[in-house]
Amino acid sequence: MLWTNVAYAMGAGQPAGGGANPIASFVPLILMFAIFYFLLIRPQQKKAKEHKAMLEAIKKGDNVVTAGGLYARVFEVQDDVLVLDLGETKVRVGRSFVSAVIDPKAKKDDKKPAKGADKKEDGKDGQK
């Protein structure tokens, strides 16, 4: 008699699945796929499309950075091969190994001084 009560408490007396709507069990899977799509898949596709457009726009004279970290100037453009000028050396690189095109005229903003660095004016450093 003790085992019968345990079996009912575990749900052995109910049909498998609890009689719930089978479509309702797919709702969490659909929501997870939607979250993955908008957080992972879509941004990767957008980034890949921008990278492909950047690779197609490379022309002679552009400054580029390769996937290996080499900074170079494009000397010659062939179909899928770029000849890069590294200064004294010219290197052939596959077009797909270019990570970025650099604008040499654009300069990064100067770093702002840390807080408190501008308080030391007129030889006064806050000590009496």
- Terminal-residue CA separation: 88 Å
The averaged pLDDT comes out at: 80
Kindly provide the name of the CATH class of the domain at 59-104.
Mainly Beta
Tell me the overall shape: rod-shaped
At the fold tier of CATH, the topology name of the domain at 59-104 is: SH3 type barrels
Q: Evaluate the radius of gyration.
A: 31 Å
Strand order of the largest sheet: 4-3-2-1-5
Helix count, DSSP H or I runs of 4 or more residues: 2
**Number of distinct beta strands:** 5
Give the CATH architecture of the domain at 59-104: Roll
Provide the helix percentage.
25-40%
For the biggest sheet, the summary is: 5 strands, antiparallel
Structural class: alpha+beta
- Roughly what fraction of the amino acids lie in strands? 15-25%
What order do the SSEs take from the amino end to the carboxyl end, as H and E?
A: HHEEEEE
* Poorly predicted residue ranges: none
What does this structure look like?
This protein is of the alpha+beta class and 128 residues long. Among the domains are: 21-57; 59-104, Roll (SH3 type barrels). Helix content is 30%, strand content 20%. The protein is built from two helices and five strands; from the N terminus they run H-H-E-E-E-E-E. Strands 4-3-2-1-5 form a five-stranded antiparallel sheet, covered by helices on one side. A hairpin with a 3-residue loop joins strand 2 (71-77) and strand 3 (81-85). It is rod-shaped and about 90 Å long. It starts with a helix and ends in a 26-residue tail after the last strand.
